[in-house]
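Run log, item B.
One chain of 784 residues. Sequence copied directly from the ordering sheet:
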Amino acid sequence: MIDPTENRVSASSVTRRSFLRYVGTGGASLLTAHVLGPLTRTVQAREIRGAIKESWSALAGTGRPDWTPVSYPIPIASDGGSAATDAARLAKYVVGDDVLLPAGFRYDVVATWGDRFGPPGHTITFGHSNDYTGIVPIAGKADEFWMLVNHEYISARPWLEGYSSIFGQSPVDSEGKIGGARLSGCDLNLADPALTQNMNPVLLAGARELCRVALSDLGVSVLRVRRSADGRFSVVTNSLDHFRFTGDGAQNARVQDMSFTGPAANRLGVPRGTFSNCSGATTPWGTFLSCEENFQDQVPEFIAPDGQPLPGHSINFNGNADKIDHPYPFEFSGLGAGVFPPLDGRQYGWVIEVDPVRRTLKKHTALGRFRHENVALRCEAGKRLVAYMGDDRRGGHVWKFVSEGVVTNPTDPANSALLERGTLYVARFEINGEQRSGSWVALDPHTPLRMPEPQQCADGRVWLPSRPDGGHVQVSEQAGPGVLSVTEWNATATRFAGGDASQLMSLVDPPDGVATLDARNAHATGVLCMDAYVMANAIGGTPCSRPEDIEVHPRDGSIYIAFTDSTGSDDGSPDARIFPDSRRDNSRQYGAIYRLAETNGDAASLTFTWGRFIEAGEMAEQGQSFACADNLVFDPFDNLWMVTDITTPLHNNATDRTGTTAPGAKGFVGVFGNNALFMIPTSGPSAGVPHCFAIGPMESEMTGPTFTPDGRTLLLAVQHPGELHGARRATIDRADEVRHVQLATRDGSATFTQHRTTPLGSNFPSRIPNTPPKPCVIAITRQA
């Protein structure tokens, strides 16, 4: 059923008619009557459908998958249960420390943290916290591929537990200390020589070595892989072709080049590496795109009005602790301060392009600097190249880049140059009665500023450029400690602009000697791209609820957006008109998937319609039994696959449905168990209904789902198993816990207690007790 005031679809009554009405929202004919000209991927999909009738991702004639979903810890529409049987069927549930798959499927481990590949003299070490996986066929080699894997961040507890087996002697002892100083909760300024000269030399050396090794464990790995006749994937172990770009440089002397392109390139020098690599994409011309996301955790984020690093702004090295008793910190921040010279934060937060054949890396500044989750391309002959992106922060934006030039041949490597010149747009979502519409606003020096509306944001504040100081400032209706009122911010911006703060150009300080308008425009464009988040707020871009993955439907070209988390934070908060779940009195604060349709199906259009595709939450509150949608991918049959990103300390929490564990509150996401992978049909009788295909190991996130071009294999990264407790121990003090979780029947008519057996920590993928867990990439295939 559709609630006309909320435009929400009911999990308990999804019909094809209501589904099409729901996702259309102002443009329902798109899915049924307006089919775009053939996209490159669509042509491939049609060929695949005819070639692999027995594909494991195929749908049966009913429109449902021809496999049985794995057992899920709460009622879900695809489990075949009923409100009458929910309590008895789910009274007990045992959480597994493995990748759980439907009967008839298997996974093989392809690459694990610490694996070494390549012959002597050309060996690389596979990095930590693998995220996105991309696959590109190697020309002229049947069943051989380039596989790119992102390494996002350091999950400190399992990383330190496994350190000695990968790198040798650890600078951190078994009590979590360096030179007698406890690492958890430390706060060290490693960038200021005046402070480090008086520091305990053992502590200083150990902290710097830890930063160096950690950064070398991040970035991207490119491996040559092979598929055997039975479908199993393996790395071509002794190939010379493996290489890595790491957080502080490159690994493998055969790497050729790293460079910046676009409007900010001339002020950034040569890249020192890449890290915080989250999701990404493959291009039709055979390269990989990788996105630098939470760079602000490791290097300074803020810049001055002229685009230089913000004076006096640095980030300390920290070993961030957690509430549970553990000798090692939960995560690290400030790694970029521990290498010499300290890393320049302006070099990070970009979309990078990796060419596996030429072994080059480009950072495309025309696509903006923000917390990039992913990028999705529309690449069609005779049209401009379009890239859709999400800024994964609370209050972040949905973006698209439209190239200046036109695609001639989608497979031509020259298309890479199209990412160097074009216009970057931010989405402005609007509601007018029943109409859900929107527009794309150019991040251009001459775009007019828009009156800030912090009162529309869930937490009553918005981040804007601080002038003349540089960096960011919170703006609210009323001034407060560290917060400017709208009137005060307008006054400071006007003074900075010399009385004329009518356009974005006025927020940029031109350098001395820049006299011509063209030169000022070029300089301003570079600065805007480097500080895209707050500049977007200044022109009325809609603050969103953590837009993570964005994918283009391979048949109709519509855009699916995973909004992971509707809450606000010190980083910002979403517009409550567009994300009503972000209101504190609302019971859905853990995201949804939206769908956006460009006007006339034209990716370069400046207007669009939008609607909510499916909701998170329990069925009892008209949700679809998941929380915190993250990475998305379409299979060759146009089904949407989704992994979830529930923050680790909240997995499998005991809940009594009151206080912090009430529906919608922070602790409530514990009812959804471990992170999982779902298949969601986008057409047919099961359209919009998730089917659980896989559940991940303990304290992990499953990321980067990628299908091989023929649809026979699904690559999946298992990230940070054992992140909270480290290795699962075979001891009395670390025995599995039985936690009591209060659930609702699917119709909401009653609640019941589930006794959920929950391991502490993980031993994945070895599954040997007491063995530190390791992130890895697996390949999933259907058994014959």
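Observations after the first pass:
- Residues 201-216 form the longest helix (16 residues).
- The chain has a mean pLDDT of 90.
Flagged for discussion on Thursday.
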